[in-house]
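Below is how a single chain appears once it has passed through the pipeline. First comes the sequence as given, then the structure the pipeline wrote out for it. We keep one example in the README because the format questions we get most often are answered faster by looking than by reading.
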Amino acid sequence: MEWLERNPFITYKMKFEKVDRDFLTKNELAAVEDKEISIERLIWVRDIFVFSCYTGLAYIDVVNLKQDNLVTGIDGEVWIDTSRQKTNTPVQMPLLPKALNILKKYESKREYLPNGSLLPILSNQKLNSYLKEIADICGITKHLTFHTARHTFATTVTLNNGVPIETVSKMLGHTKLTTTQIYARVLATKLSADIEELKKKLAS
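Resulting structure:
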């Protein structure tokens, strides 16, 4: 409105603190998947969490997932075709076998699930509360929340298995590649494997 003659914030510089996002390592993810659990509510939570670890879907996007969102892809396999509620960005991705197996597990129970959901639905608050129990049972000391699953998909499941960052970005429904680069950490195991490959090439 030109009420001020000069910008009072002209010399102010914004500072952003870099935050490390928690994710499960390969061994920690395996511990959650393989743990014998007898309590039904924890089995549900574990299944939903592991499903997200292999799809990268956020909590609300898992809640919104319906039968219509499962389509046959160009490869003849089952794909997820949905949109991120947060950004309304389209997400299309083939389902990994472990995620598909979890969906199949609940196929016969769909009529009992609310609003045509593909998986049991709990509130985000309850889900995160029960995830703390699962972390304790599995001996995981990290602060486990549902969003940890999305970070695990980005870091442990895809990027550290050599999936290109552009592909990961598309599957996560990011609008900018820079958002995905937050996850582009190189784990010690990946570093070791890459150097082993380099040693072989240099030796030959």
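DSSP finds nine helices and three strands in the chain.

See the next section for the split statistics.
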